[in-house]
Structure formats: C-alpha cells, structure tokens
Amino acid sequence: xxxxxxxxxxxxxxxxxxxxxxxxxxxxxxxxxxxxxxxxxxxxxxxxxxxxxxxxxxxxxxxxxxxxxxxxxxxxxxxxxxxxxxxxxxxxxxxxxxxxxxxxxxxxxxxxxxxxxxxxxxxxxxxxxxxxxxxxxxxxxxxxxxxxxxxxxxxxxxxxxxxxxxxxxxxxxxxxxxxxxxxxxxxxxxxxxxxxxxxxxxxxxxx
Amino acid sequence: xxxxxxxxxxxxxxxxxxxxxxxxxxxxxxxxxxxxxxxxxxxxxxxxxxxxxxxxxxxxxxxxxxxxxxxxxxxxxxxxxxxxxxxxxxxxxxxxxxxxxxxxxxxxxxxxxxxxxxxxxxxxxxxxxxxxxxxxxxxxxxxxxxxxxxxxxxxxxxxxxxxxxxxxxxxxxxxxxxxxxxxxxxxxxxxxxxxxxxxxxxxxxxxxxxxxxxxxxxxxxxxxxxxxxxxxxxxxxxxxxxxxxxxxxxxxxxx
Lengths: 207, 255
What we know:
Structural class of chain B: alpha+beta
Shape of chain A: globular
CATH class of the largest domain in chain B: Alpha Beta
Largest interface: A-B, 44 and 40 residues
Distance between the termini of chain A: 34 Å
Distance between the termini of chain B: 61 Å
CATH class of chain A: Alpha Beta
CATH architecture of chain A: 2-Layer Sandwich
Shape of chain B: globular
Oligomer: heterodimer
Largest sheet of chain B: 8 strands, antiparallel
Number of helices of chain B: 10
Number of strands of chain A: 11
CATH architecture of the largest domain in chain B: 3-Layer(aba) Sandwich
Strand order of the largest sheet of chain A: 1-2-4-9-10-11
Structural class of chain A: alpha+beta
Strand content of chain B: 15-25%
Number of domains of chain A: 1
Radius of gyration of chain B: 21 Å
Mean pLDDT of chain B: 78
Order of helices and strands of chain B: HHHHEEHEEHHEEHEEHH
Low-confidence stretches of chain A: 5-47
CATH topology of the largest domain in chain B: Chemotaxis protein chec
C-alpha cells in the first residue's frame, strides 16, 4: 500500500492537460485516482485525517476512497454528487451554463448540461446500484458589480442550468449555497456527504 | 462576413484562415479572429513589455507611499484556455484581498490587484500609522486598501496611456475578499464567453523581507490588445535617424 502511494505521489503531472483533452478519461476511476494523488496532501480534519484532492476549473473527479474534494468557485458552480449506498462521490466544477455556445469544444465538465449526466454516469459505473444519488451545489456568485460579464448574470444562469440538469437526470438536490457576492471554497467529504463552504474569509459553514 | 475575415487574416498563417473558413457559418467562432494572433511572438512580447512597464510604475507608487523597497518578479503573460489559467498562477487556496478596477473608454480592460490577507493587513498598518492592524476601524481599513489599489492601478494606467495614447477612464474600485481562484474566475468566464483563448498578464511583487506579496492581474479586451500592439508597432517603425540628428543638434547648441 505504502509503496503504491509513494509511487503515485512521485508521478508529476503539473497541468493535467492530457486529462483535460480526453473527456472519456477525465472522469474514469483509474486515471482520475492517479492524477489526484499526485496533487494531494494529508490534512488533519476534526475527526479523521482525510486526503485532500483538488478539482480544478472545468474539471471533474470521481472518488471511491475516503477523501475530501476541494475546489474554489466564484461565478462558477461546484456540483457535489454523493452516493450514500457506496460511500463514493464526485465533484464537477462547471464554468458555463450551455454547451451549445461552442461546437469545437470537447470538454464535458465545462458546461452544466453535459457535466451532470457525465458525473452521474461515472458514479453509477463505479458503484453497483444506480440509486441513492443526491446532490449539493455551491457557487454562482455575482462578485463584482462593475464587471461587464455580470450584466448577463452568468452566475445566476449557471445555477439555473445546474438545477434543470439535475432535475432532468433524476438527482435530488439536498442543499445549496448559491448567489451572493463572495467567492467560496468548497470541501466535499465523500464518506459523510457533508459539504463545508467557506464564504469569503468568514467562518466555515456546513450545508 | 467572409470579406472582413479575409482582410483581418491577411498577415496571419495559413492554418488560421483554414479554421476560419471552416467555422465561418458560426458567428461565435469568428470572435477567435477578433483577438490577437497568439502565434505571433512579437505581438505577445510587445504586450508583455507594456505590462511590465505598467507594473513597474504601479509598484513604484506603492514604494513611494510605504517608503520601502519593492521586489518585482519577472512578469508573465499567460496565453491559454481560460480554464487552465488558475493552474498557471498556482495559488489556489491562498486567502486574498482583491481590488478590482474596470478601465472603460473607447475599449475596456479589467485590472485586478490581489494581496495576500496578511500582507494587506501589514500595509494598512503602515498607511494608517497604527501600532497594530487590529486597532484600525474596519471601514478605515477598507478605504485605505481601496485607495492603495486606486493609486497603484492609476500608475499602471498612466504609464500605458502615456506611451500608446490610448484613452482609458478608471471607474471606482471595488474590494472583495476570498480565495485566489474564486476571485479570478469571474474574469475568466468573461473571456471564455467570447473566445477559446484567454490572455492574462501576471505581475508578482513583494516588499523586501516579507514572504507574502501581491499580484497585479490584467485582462485586456481583444480590441485593446490589438490597439496596444498597433500603436507600439508605430513606435517601432518610426524613423529614428531623424530623431538622432535632432538630439545631436540640441546637444551642439548647448555646447
């Protein structure tokens, strides 16, 4: 176990570009595990020590081991889907609401309407049952009132698109911490299904 | 539609034109041409040098205000897909204070000045001349930091517009706190909406002797990128022999 862990720690993949280009690998169980261990570190949580795995912008990770998935969102939305039966979970960090905006982009995890089905499918593949999927979402803030892109209110559109996609795929939305004007740091514990959100530089809240 | 694209691609590479003709039916993809030809290294060098100049002026004004030496790291220009930019900065969870100042006018530009929280506290302490940052009233803290951002970005702006003659009007600054990545992502979304390539200027600086520091992040719009490069190339193509003789002339006269 230890030798395997060490081997994985030393595999250096600083940009994960290969994963970003290949949608079929970006949420497959094996490559995502290998890449996630390379950038992870052990942190002392209140109860147990969990491995911290970072999910980058427009990226998606599915884990079956006890880890905490971490991401930072502003106007983007973090979708945390928890499989309570198999104690596994996945997190997708989406950027834009609709994949129709471009035709030559193949990145599934960038858009709300494609990321949700892909994440659900990856979770169903990793577990045996297709039941017990539930979701929590965070993000979609409107951080700078003077930013021109916000006149379109991308954050709001993202949140609506994610909710619609969850409904279409039959995944129950348990909790949300969306909109507002602060950037959020999202930590998703895939064993308990708890999501800790830190809004701005304030204290951590649980949703 | 076709005519405009062909004109704009006149100097571009073959591949670029091929792509454009493939996607000419999609109005969205023609925006790829609107921006700078990112394969042209000279254009990127020019933009980097302009950014460097602006960042130098901005940090000079910070140094004047604090009476301290500021170390400026070699600035970088990130040209990548919008979602890869946070990785290139590599400061994911760092708690930061961001001052955002939109520059409007004939074209627009977004400038974001990011300080690490600890560094921001120390700078406030120095500006307000109080023994401890906790003694400072929170409203005072806020406006001190906003004013600092306004002065630094003003320095950046005046350097660039003096050199290129581009008119940009600064709007009131906004202050937001959060982790580094969360502060960046709104701007990246804005760029992702119009193009597949984001162009971001990254200038790091810190006070000598302190581990924490700040970053000046600039997101120029496509029109501004083109305008800056064109104006700078006018400078490059100018006939300098005339200027040299003029200088010699004045020199002799002084003698």
